[in-house]
Amino acid sequence: MRGKLMFITGLAAGFVLGSRAGREKYEEITANAKKVWEHPTVQEAAGVAQAQANKLYTEGKDKLNESKIGEKLKSASTSSSTGSETSTLSTSGSGMTSSNGTGTTY
To answer: How far is CA 101 from the centre of its chain?
Structure first.
């Protein structure tokens, strides 16, 4: 399925870039793509895929935390660092933030 989607995307991009029809054809393609994306079935599939990705992320995070590498990461984050720049990772919720000690959160 992914291969077919990539092929169709490449075909559409090639058509748009190589088309002599220009802007009109581009607008038609983008309007059709928007209609497809906003279709309830597509949105439902996107929601299912996002839920599965979140589940896999959570499971992977839990397995990492239970592994030896996770234990090393925990012990490294609790030990004090030298210098003024420290690195802190927080995995709360579904996102991951990192601070470099300069007040900037990534």
So the answer is: 25
Give 61's contacts (C-beta < 8 A, 6+ positions apart).
91
pLDDT tens per residue across span 48-100: 999 999 999 999 998 988 888 878 877 887 774 544 444 444 444 444 454 55
For residue 104, give the 3-state DSSP assignment.
coil
Q: What is the dihedral of CA 6, 52, 70, 98, to 10 degrees?
A: 70
Of the candidates 98, 5, 97, 96, the residue with the CA atom closest to the CA atom of residue 49: 5
93 in Cβ contact with 85 (< 8 Å): no
Q: Measuring CA to CA, which residue among 102, 73, 103 is closest to residue 89?
A: 73
